[in-house]
């Protein structure tokens, strides 16, 4: 990701916006990222995507269920080794 300062925005805004059409661009102030400019299509994908998904053991997809069970097995095996 390319980085520009807020001052750069005044001097080379066209370059910054052109770059942001193809890749995220960070705008910094005093060395810290304050804003990120991304293409509208990428933004729409981000806001349309659910941020968290919850399942019960009964309705979890097989891969999620398998991962959960593996994690539980590892925890139980670890507990067995300590007693």
Automatic annotation (TrEMBL):
InterPro entries: Antitoxin_Phd/YefM, YefM-like_sf. Pfam families: PhdYeFM_antitox. It comes from the Bacteria. Belongs to the phD/YefM antitoxin family. Antitoxin component of a type II toxin-antitoxin (TA) system. This is Antitoxin. It comes from Reyranella soli.
